């Protein structure tokens, strides 16, 4: 009697440690982002140029919290640059889907949580790079004045605020075709920044526009990022920041689960 062939026991298969999270894939993700010239120009050069142009206007020496208007603008431009960078990092999933890379990943033991964690770390790294560039330009400009501990704390808080826009980038990346993601997010984030008080203080807006701004994604994170400088953080700004973060993460997880479930 011929012996039947042995069947593989799925339970005996060894899964990679930490769900497949590893430094090699993380390094590939980082290099891919740094090689993207459009991302580098849009997210690292534009915010610094805006800081130079806006910061050259009159009134920058007026006091704001523990610093001056120039410092207020510096934190705002750092947030804008980091938000753009984090969103661009998140939208890379659209390109991965377009070339079939995400489908290949579904055939590997890579855990979706590990995949998202690597995306988040890349977004944090790129956001930190954008914040560093804006701060270096601000220091060289010599107009921003605030204590060193406020400078450092503002940069750290701004960096973690950008996770909101990394989640937004992933969400949009699963909704929109790869070639159109940043064409939508770039102008969209610029509009949200104007409306959310990143470029222009809300006190200069009409009451109707200001009341709308309180509900936008940029308003809450901008107030949180500038809180170490201004010492003014309304409770509804914190609620705004938390709610939009949860909403974007939930949307990204939902669209990712839909994409993963496809045959």
TrEMBL record:
It is found in: Membrane. The keyword Transmembrane helix applies. InterPro entries: ABC2_TM, ABC_2_transport, Nod_factor_ABC_transporter. Residues 25-227 form the ABC-2 type transporter transmembrane domain. The chain crosses the membrane at residues 39-57, 69-95, 116-138, 150-176, 188-206, 233-254. GO terms for molecular function: ABC-type transporter activity. Keywords: Antibiotic resistance, Membrane, Transmembrane, Transmembrane helix. One of its GO terms (cellular component) is ATP-binding cassette (ABC) transporter complex. This is Membrane protein. It comes from Intrasporangium oryzae NRRL B-24470.
